[in-house]
Write the structure tokens for this entry.
Amino acid sequence: MALDKHGIAKRIAQELQEGYYVNLGIGIPTLVANYIPEGMNVVLQSENGLLGMGPFPTEDEVDPDMINAGKQTVTTLPGSALFSSAESFGMIRGEHVQLTVLGAMEVSERGDIANWKIPGKMVKGMGGAMDLVASAKNIIVAMQHTSKDGQSKLLKNCSLPITGLKCVKKIVTDLAVLEVTVNGFKLLERAPGVTVEQIQAATEGKLTIEGEIPEINV
């Protein structure tokens, strides 16, 4: 059974480490905030000027002035700080963020990412994506493995405008967890009930499979 967006977020949360400063992109990545392992000290950064972002608010906690970069209402944790977007991007460009989690439209077998524009369609703009992929030490992509019409989004070469080159380290999709290596995608885990053959069929780029592939545990 393919993972839903919460399953993808739960699996990515397993990649967090104590003391990490983490930027969560819009979409599925924002859900990672809800699944940080209990007792782990992780500081979430939002590029619109917030350090110390908490999980999504309950209905009685909603503050319309407290939002993340995707304009979703969020909570803050004790010790959090608010500042200008200029200072926020100084943190990003200064490589003070250990992990960035982004959504993507396409990822190539070399780790190129396209996640900001579809030609001919209205978009809000680049946002902070290009700065994040250029500066982050570790980038994990959260995405659907295929498009709505069943076409692979893990490609030999990206067909959409590129956000960053050779920057993605790991990908968590609804079907699998994959690492980007010098030899293309390497299959690490598969969604419960999903076969290796199904993942192969859904992956256009080069895919390396070694030994028994365990199921994702979420």
In short: The chain has one domain: 5-46+96-208. Residues 37 and 178 are 22 Å apart (CA to CA). Residues 5-46+96-208 form a domain with the Glutaconate Coenzyme A-transferase fold (CATH 3.40.1080.10). The chain has a mean pLDDT of 91.
